[in-house]
Amino acid sequence: MLDLSGRRPRKMATLFVTHHDCIEHDTGPGHPESADRLRVIQRVFEAEEFMFLHREEAPLADLDLIKAVHDPAYVDKVMASIPDHGVEPLDGDTYVSPGSGKAALRSVGGACVAVDAVMGGHERNAFVATRPPGHHAEYDRAMGFCLFNNAAIAAHHARSKFGIKRVAVMDFDVHHGNGTQDLFYNDADLFYCSTHQWPLYPGTGAESERGCANNILNVGMVAGSGTAEIQEAFNSTVLPGIAAFKPELLIISAGFDGHKNDPLAGLCYVADDFVWMTKQLMDLAEEQCGGRVVSLLEGGYDLPSLATSAVQHVRTLMGAH
User: Which of 54, 70, 136, 313 is an active site residue?
Assistant: First the structure.
């Protein structure tokens, strides 16, 4: 956003990152991780109240950036699997189409450009609305609708480019982010915290999974959990755990499929719960790492609930709540 002199305002704001290429990732008819997810998010952020959001298009990530985190042979395999036409499976529920390669590179690039803006002091925080999501992608395996692990790559990028050491990811998606856990497990300077329905796909996320240096913190939520339960989990476990780690950057894996209307799980959050969680994480980041927060879209499959929850999340990042 430019002022009348043609300069960006001095006051840092919230950055919104997306790209049309991410709509071209076709997962096939009836698939829950559809292009309509991103269409509805892009549409709601065209509202007048968001005119002061800073906006940036997600760039194409360099493959070397992805290969610094994932098995290089796996990265080449994924890119070679992109078909010329039609939709092809990588696993039982993860599909690629002709537009999937660019979409995946935009998802990684969007996460990294958001890190650049926040770590460089140009923006207060950022929300990256891209697809495919990333938190199920392991070192050498695509799964759960995910090709590359956007959050893990963003964390690596922040450390390699800006010289910081400690990065935390807080994942409130209803499904456990097995991929992020896998990629963080043996690095004591990367912290992964997840609240997720338990038991549920993908079957990981037991509280006994602690990482090489207690750098993994899993909080299982029973089906039917809602406002009271998530607030208790945050106050007793999540916030003290992240604070004790003392991160220099906080990345949020923002899945909105814990909403009570979501068809893929059984938690009972409402949009105000995402406001509350976001506010707590912002306050923690203010105390720990100068307010540096980068939020990345993960799940959320009921379109009206996804749109409402994402709006409330970004309103909170903007300081409107």
Answer: 136
Per residue in 177-222, pLDDT tens?
999 999 999 999 999 999 999 999 999 999 999 999 999 999 999 9
Which pLDDT tens digit goes with each residue over 50-77?
A: 999 999 999 999 999 999 999 999 999 9
CATH of domain 14-317: 3.40.800.20
The separation between the first and the last C-alpha atoms of the chain, rounded to the nearest angstrom, is 22
Dihedral Cα 109, 112, 113, 118, nearest 10 deg: 160
**Backbone Cα Rg of the chain:** 18
Strands in the chain per DSSP E: 14-18, 54-57, 88-89, 95-96, 125-128, 167-171, 190-197, 216-221, 249-254, 293-297
Q: Is 136 a catalytic residue?
A: yes
Domain range list for the chain: 14-317
Global pTM exceeds 0.85: yes
Q: Which amino acid is at 127?
A: F
**DSSP element (H, E) containing 142:** none
